[in-house]
Every structure is written in structure tokens, then in C-alpha cells.
Design brief:
The complex is a heterodimer of chains A (115) and B (114). Chain A is mainly β and 115 residues long. Chain A contains no helices and eleven strands. In chain B, a hairpin with a 5-residue loop joins strand 4 and strand 5. In chain B, the strands form two sheets. In chain B, strands 2, 4, 5, 9, 10 and 11 form a six-stranded mixed β-sheet that branches. Classes of the chains: A mainly beta (115), B mainly beta (114). At the A-B interface, strand 5, strand 9 and strand 10 of A face strand 4, strand 5 and strand 9 of B.
Chain lengths: 115, 114
């Protein structure tokens, strides 16, 4: 149980374009979802936290207009990287929690490469 | 600032050896601590979760300890196998932060040599 999927697993896009990453909880209702970014040989850095039906809370230094997060349902959250630049190339991982528990269940990650 | 540090950054051991990975954190006020495994280019697999009131957790060949007062945790792997090769991440849920928020260390990359 508690499976989280991400799509796509990897994506290459051109500088200036936008790309959307999906995060789905497959067998539970995720009241809270988290988006992390991981650069090579670095730890996971929390970008934002979103609760279903509410606006996401962004961590300091994360541009909310660049990284658009939508958590429209209890099983789906999306991260849209707008006007992507090469420095946005990274590994993006989502996680999800359900009501009553603090444990996060992690997706397999999405490798974004901006050329 | 609440931080999590893992030492060493990389470790290479021959198959069959027992080993210890270290994690330290700056604030003893925590909800819990969690150890994860990450394979190259993959997401995270949860290994062990230790609540702040616990001293250790065991799962198979893995044993994680927690010393909250000194801000330290260790992950002990017994009889290591090549399949254990991965990066091991320590994450702490600090009290006072967003209650769900995890703070991660940079990880220890383990290589088990056949």
C-alpha cells in the first residue's frame, strides 16, 4: 500500500518552454503533497507543501511564479516549471501523506533536463 | 538553523562486513527520524522510522539507533551484500517546523564490493 507515482520519469525540454510533472497517490487519498528538488550529490530540498484544494506553501527562495503547484484532487498534484532554464535541470521528487499520519510516501522522481 | 549531517559522504566495504552509517542533527527537539535508501536515478525507499520516544528500530539486517540528547543516529547494516549498494539518506522531522516537514542530510553513498 501507499504507492506514489510520478509522470514522466524523465523529460528533456528546450529553454524557455514549460513542463508539467504529475504526482499521483495510487491507493490512498493524499491530503498533503510535497515537492522536492535534488541536485547531484546534494540532499533533497523541500520546494513546497500543498494541501488539497488550497494554495501551496513555498519554501524560502523558491519562486512561486516559476514553479506552479496545483493540488486539485486528493490523488493528484502537479508541478509546472514555467519558462524553464538550464539551471532548473534537476531531479524532482514528490511525496504524499494522508490525514492522521506524518509519514511521507515518495514517488520515483522525475529527471528534468533543460537544453 | 536546523540541519542534518551525514558522515562519511561515501563508504566502500567488502561483502560480508558489518558497517555503521552516521547521522547528526542540530536540534534535539524532534518528532522522529527516518532512514531511506536511494538507488541511482530513483526515488526513496523508507527503511526505518524511529519515533522520538524510541531508542532503536530493527528490520532484518538493519538496525537504527537514536540518541536524541546528543543529536545522533546510526544505521547499522549487518553482513553487507552487493545489493546494499545505494545512497542512504537520513531525514529528521523537527518539532516546531511544519509538522510534516522532513529535513534531509546529503546522504552516504555505500558501495559493497563482491
Amino acid at each position: 500500500g501507499a504507492v506514489v507515482s510520478q509522470h514522466p520519469s524523465w523529460v528533456i525540454c528546450k529553454s524557455g518552454t514549460s513542463v508539467k510533472i504529475e504526482c499521483r497517490s495510487l491507493d490512498f487519498q493524499a491530503t498533503t503533497m510535497f515537492w522536492y528538488r535534488q541536485f547531484p550529490k546534494q540532499s533533497l530540498m523541500l520546494m513546497a507543501t500543498s494541501n488539497e484544494g488550497s494554495k501551496a506553501t513555498y519554501e524560502q527562495g523558491v519562486e512561486k511564479d516559476k514553479f506552479l503547484i496545483n493540488h486539485a484532487s486528493l490523488t493528484l498534484s502537479t508541478l509546472t516549471v514555467t519558462s524553464a532554464h538550464p539551471e532548473d535541470s534537476s531531479f524532482y521528487i514528490c511525496s504524499a501523506s494522508f490525514s492522521g499520519t506524518y509519514e511521507q510516501y515518495f514517488g520515483p522522481g522525475t529527471r528534468l533536463t533543460v537544453t | 538553523k536546523q540541519e542534518v549531517t551525514q558522515i562519511p559522504a561515501a563508504l566502500s566495504v567488502p561483502e560480508g562486513e558489518n558497517l555503521v552509517l552516521n547521522c547528526s542533527f542540530t536540534d534535539s527537539a524532534i518528532y522522529n527520524l527516518q532512514w531511506f535508501r536511494q538507488d541511482p536515478g530513483k526515488g526513496l525507499t523508507s527503511l526505518l522510522l524511529i519515533q522520538s520516544s524510541q531508542r532503536e528500530q530493527t528490520s532484518g539486517r538493519l538496525n537504527a539507533s537514536l540518541d536524541k540528547s546528543s543529536g545522533r543516529s546510526t544505521l547499522y547494516i549487518a553482513a553487507s551484500q552487493p545489493g546494499d549498494s545505494a545512497t542512504y539518506l537520513c531525514a529528521v522531522r523537527f518539532s516546531g517546523a511544519g509538522s510534516y516537514q522532513l529535513t534531509f542530510g546529503k546522504g552516504t553513498k555505500l558501495s559493497v564490493i563482491p
